[in-house]
Design a protein that fits this description.
Layout (H helix, E strand, L loop, with lengths): L7 H11 L6 H12 L5 H13 L3 E3 L9 E3 L1 H25 L4
Antiparallel strand pairs: 1-2
Helix pairs in contact: 1-2
């Protein structure tokens, strides 16, 4: 996930969605909305999908009824796992430190 900079959040949401199975654009938007309560617009989605493909973290599958599904690659699985484990560590420490303010 290094180098994603300001695009990390949409990329993590897309990879997390695709970890549940292949999806096309609209299905990704709806799944991300359900899992994160965040609406990812089509422009943001397709720009992130393009970056993720170039990084070989996802791959496009054959078109189905004018829809192009995507799936996470083994490299994407490892990148997502690494990112989420680091985020969990930071979250755990941050929440523990916030108890001083409760």
């Amino acid at each position: 996930m290094d180098g994603l900079g300001r695009f990390a959040e949409p990329s993590v949401l897309i990879l997390t969605s695709l970890a549940g199975g292949p999806k096309h654009g609209y299905a990704l938007i709806k799944d991300i909305e359900g899992l994160a309560g965040t609406v990812v617009g089509p422009g943001t989605l397709y720009a992130a999908l393009s970056r993720l493909q170039k990084s070989r973290l996802i791959e496009a599958l054959p078109e189905e009824e004018r829809r192009r599904p995507y799936q996470i690659t083994p490299t994407g699985v490892q990148a997502l796992r690494t990112y989420l484990e680091q985020a969990r560590q930071v979250s755990t420490v941050g929440l523990k430190r916030l108890t001083a303010f409760a």
